[in-house]
Design a protein that fits this description.
about 40% helix; globular; eight-stranded parallel β-barrel; 8 strands; binds phosphoenolpyruvate; TrioseP_Isoase_bac/euk
Amino acid sequence: MMRKPLIAGNWKMHMTSAEGCGLAARVAESCVGLTDREVLLAPPYTMMAEVARVLEKSSVIISSQNICWEEKGAFTGEISPVMVKDAGGSGAIVGHSERRQIFMETDNLVNQRVKGALRFDLLTILCIGETLEQREGGETNAVLEAQLRRGLEGVSSSDMINVVIAYEPVWAIGTGKTASKEQAQEVHLFLRKLIAEIYEKNIAEQTRILYGGSVKPTNVDELMAQPDIDGALVGGAALDAESFGRIINFES
Ligand code: PEP
């Protein structure tokens, strides 16, 4: 099955609304005529609705950077799937390493978020990744397997159509260090086999697995040329219209 590449930009905690809308307009320009790939932006919540309005006529998907599993209630500081949809969003990033490491989000919490996002039909990007210590200790596959299995616990085969996996080695996020194309491909293949084991081969073939970790205009082409790399989750370079425009327009 052909998997449509997905390039996702995570704006994290950057920019004012005016700056975000300006960048969104430039991203929309970079997407003109591109039908063989999808583009997603995850702006801060405060500007989500405004950015969505800027992108109304484009096919760019708007995503939240995290998600609660409940529709509403006493969950101070959280955002619900209904709110994301109300603001024009249709996707959610879950389990980003910054959430896991700085805000102590556990696999169990991440799994609740995944299921919550899927219950509301959001395109759900589940992030997983090993630390440098874990890689150097030879634990990469075991760590990734645990994060993937726990993150997807209770997710049905039919829901997998809305799941995207993002492999983001923690040591490569915001550090300028990128996994080599060989290292990334090896992990992506491992993850695809694991998805086939958890579900079935067809599901593994249809599931997009993104690479994230210092993706730049200079390395996107070689990463995207790998058979099991189906897109990129981009942080730093997504804040620059020119760089992100080049990444969106990767050649492979
Ligand atoms: C990220 O935050 O998901 C990320 C990959 O960041 P960067 O591209 O800056 O490494």
